[in-house]
Task: inverse folding
């Protein structure tokens, strides 16, 4: 098939779309020759195309259309049991040297990996359609906007990418004839030979054959065998974090696993905050929180990824490169996140949740009674009271960001919003206090670099284990983490340090035995209020060996039935626990060798000295 055959042959309303980008055309032709699809479809991103593909998947059994009155425009998908989450142990950074990838990434020789992948991709799309997906990450007019092209044989990927990115004609026009793009090649790895019948969720069931591979030198992505989430929606974690982190390092900005929110005080002043938590640790809940404090208003700009640059005034500005939410369903409830429930009321794709008999969906901890019976995420009959879960722990919803009832009017501002504070956090049942303010920028980078969290179901085979997850970027940094820390520290040389955001560490997950000490959810606004007061210089704090903690009475607990002992424990410095923490951090730091910035070694030494002096 020659290059001319790829000039947009699909017509819409008597218009023929044409791309003259020779590099793109040549790449598509190379992939066709390698993967041998039965046909090629260039995606235009229209509603008509979306509807047609959704209906196609309903016919194929991939989608179940939900009741139009209960859940208009919504569909349910069920994945294969081998394909339910990110496969971190099958995710690779194939830099020129192993040292450049660093000790936190899986590395493979790029030439050897490319040959291996060519063997897997050869003929992998036989009998299927190759979809060409032009997409933009970030507003098209943003100085940080990046164009990607995903080639995939999955219509599920196409419709999800339409929700999650600026996909279609506009992205292709932005690319133009000579523009650069990030090539993203994906296949479910299930060719249809000799007219074989398809299955509802095609994938490579052998996990050892799944590969999610990033090539830093050419800024490209190859993903094989998985049709699920970040493994297949290559604009998300693969491009927006792993590849973007490489571009950001080179170009002098930050690509971060962070939510973005705005908080407006009763006096009408608005603060923009970014927060980095590991997956399924409350980012979406915080990003859409309903404050319980009277007069405070929170708005969401993004729940997962922030691209941050230095503005002309020297402050840090953040944009959300995505246009949708790919959120964890179980645990999302009227109590935890009522705004998320409203956001998924229509035009949403649900994956691996329970199908109710009336054509609606349900998941554990949804806050509504379970159906007497239904169909679980594996397609099996399910009854209320069963010992097994109806929804998978990493079940997801894909919903347009514009549907969020508290979406901020500036959420798609090309210039971004000025950030006043950065929060780090994670699941820590002990030691880490409710909120802790860094002494300065270097101390804040130290807190982010040493962050630890109890893992969740977002990555397979790793739930319930305490691991260091610096900046919540452990699975997502595209290069040596020691160099990543240095990149953050260099911001003091690129702008006035007085214009850098304040840095805090929060922990909503402290326990006393099996009991949560902090109510969380909307009550987290009390912590955010104190953070805003610290930004203004009015909030009272006490200096401790680990940072600045709220002074007695500084945290607004008005109307909150929180026992005094619990409040004291939440804000106490567990000196012995922190001494153990420093030893664990030292052990973790050792893996970075001489690539660990000396500044962080100095921060750890000073923390140890302060703790020993305190006793």
Result:
């Amino acid at each position: 098939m020659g290059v001319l055959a790829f000039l947009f042959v699909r017509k819409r309303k008597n218009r023929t779309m044409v791309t003259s980008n020779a590099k793109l055309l040549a790449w598509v032709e190379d992939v066709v020759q390698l993967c041998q699809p039965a046909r090629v479809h260039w995606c235009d991103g229209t509603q008509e195309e979306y509807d047609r593909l959704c209906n196609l998947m309903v016919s194929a059994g991939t989608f179940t259309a939900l009741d139009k009155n209960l859940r208009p425009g919504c569909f349910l998908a069920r994945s294969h049991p081998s394909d339910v989450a990110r496969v971190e142990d099958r995710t690779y950074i194939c830099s020129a040297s192993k040292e450049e990838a660093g000790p936190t990434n899986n590395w493979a020789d790029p030439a050897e990996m490319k040959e291996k992948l060519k063997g897997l991709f050869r003929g992998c799309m036989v009998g299927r359609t190759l979809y060409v997906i032009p997409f933009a990450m970030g507003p098209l007019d943003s100085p940080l906007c990046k164009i990607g092209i995903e080639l995939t044989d999955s219509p599920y990927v196409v419709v999800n990418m339409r929700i999650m990115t600026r996909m279609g004609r506009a992205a292709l026009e932005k690319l133009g004839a000579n523009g650069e793009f990030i090539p993203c090649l994906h296949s479910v790895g299930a060719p249809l030979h000799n007219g074989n019948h398809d299955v509802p969720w095609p994938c490579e069931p052998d996990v050892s054959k799944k590969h999610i591979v990033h090539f830093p030198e050419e800024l490209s992505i190859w993903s094989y065998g998985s049709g699920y989430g970040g493994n297949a929606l290559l604009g998300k974690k693969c491009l927006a974090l792993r590849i973007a982190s490489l571009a950001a390092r080179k170009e002098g900005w930050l690509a971060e696993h962070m939510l973005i929110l705005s908080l407006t005080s009763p006096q009408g002043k608005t603060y923009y905050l970014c927060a980095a938590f590991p997956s399924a640790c409350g980012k979406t809940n915080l990003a859409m929180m309903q404050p319980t404090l009277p007069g405070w208003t929170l708005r969401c700009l993004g729940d997962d990824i922030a691209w941050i640059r230095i503005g002309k005034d020297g402050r840090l500005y953040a944009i959300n490169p995505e246009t949708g939410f790919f959120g964890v369903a179980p645990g999302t409830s009227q109590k935890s996140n009522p705004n998320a429930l409203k956001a998924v009321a229509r035009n949403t794709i649900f994956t691996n949740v329970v199908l109710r008999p009336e054509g609606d969906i349900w998941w554990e901890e949804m806050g509504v009674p379970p159906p007497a019976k239904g169909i679980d995420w594996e397609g099996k009959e399910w009854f209320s009271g069963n010992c097994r879960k109806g929804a998978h722990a990493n079940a997801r919803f894909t919903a347009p960001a514009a549907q969020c009832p508290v979406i901020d009017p500036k959420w798609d501002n090309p210039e971004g919003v000025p950030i006043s504070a950065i929060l780090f956090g994670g699941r820590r049942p002990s030691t880490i206090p409710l909120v802790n303010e860094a002494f300065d920028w270097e101390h804040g980078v130290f807190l982010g670099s040493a962050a630890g969290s109890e893992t969740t179901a977002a990555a397979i085979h790793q739930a319930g284990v305490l691991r260091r997850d610096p900046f919540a970027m452990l699975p997502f940094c595209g290069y040596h983490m020691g160099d990543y820390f240095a990149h953050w520290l260099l911001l003091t040389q690129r702008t006035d340090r007085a214009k850098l955001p304040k840095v805090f560490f929060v922990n909503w997950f402290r326990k006393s035995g099996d009991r949560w000490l902090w109510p969380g959810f909307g009550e987290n606004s009390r912590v955010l209020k104190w953070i805003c007061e610290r930004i203004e210089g009015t909030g009272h704090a006490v200096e401790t060996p680990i940072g600045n903690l709220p002074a007695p009475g500084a945290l607004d607990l008005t109307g909150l039935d929180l026992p005094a002992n619990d409040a004291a424990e939440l804000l106490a410095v567990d000196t012995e626990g922190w001494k153990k923490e420093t030893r664990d951090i030292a052990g973790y730091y050792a893996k970075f060798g001489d690539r660990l910035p000396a500044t962080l070694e100095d921060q750890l030494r000073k923390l140890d000295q302060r703790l020993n002096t305190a006793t």
